[in-house]
Amino acid sequence: MAEKTEHMGMNKTGVQMSPLNTKRMLEEDQRILTRGQPGDETQMAELRQGYIRESNGYGSIPVPATLKGMAATALDMMKGERPQILIDKLAERLAMERTATRLYDALLTKLAVVGEGTLSINTEDVASIRGDEARHALLIAEAITSIGGDPTAMTPSADNVGVEAMGLVQVLNDPRSSLAQSLHALLTAELSDGVGWETLIALAHEMGHADMVEAFGDALLQERKHQLMIQSWYQEALGLDNAAMTAAAGVGLTGRADLAMPDGPGVPAPGDPGTPRPGSTS
Question: What's the rounded Cα separation, in Å, for the pair 218 and 220?
Fold first, then answer.
């Protein structure tokens, strides 16, 4: 069963709630479709392009604060490697893992109020994932320190991912968001996490950091487990049954779902015209 917060009500945000006034408005002032006067957004685009040309980006990647780190970085760059990219992406992942910890803190707060109900989600599992995220943040901080970097420095990618995550933080901490909506935001974070860890593993492998590759590989496996758990809880919160989800998964694997619709055949694959409807010409 879906949450009680997902209900039908007097939502007045759409124009269909007032069809007569909408029709009158369009008949009396056709300019409303062009925001008052004919034209396009060329000038707005030109203004933004000017800002883009003048921008120097989010900032710079800090040089290592220790002599050992500076020497190692200089040597790597002489060999044609890209230590600055690794430092930037390590800082990015550290920022996201710290944010993920706060996201799960917010979920625990919400779960204490809305309760677990009949769903399989429980406080112990959420707290365990939260603990994993905190340990991942410490792992990244140690990795940055090991190559002479400063884990407290804000790099361009760390700044960028912080902006990306602002919406997720707002959803989880909004008292109006339901459990399903909160889980959807967390699923977005977990999907991003997987790609982030894969990128770090590739960079660490490229630069010969075998210890990082191994440790980051373990973290990636944990993140994939998190994703599966969050996705399962999210589907339960929406009231989806296993049969529907199995059919949906089949679309991604085969391009076609063996899902028998209540009034007809299965879902056609993209580009497949399927069975013609009665009265149609094909």
Answer: 5
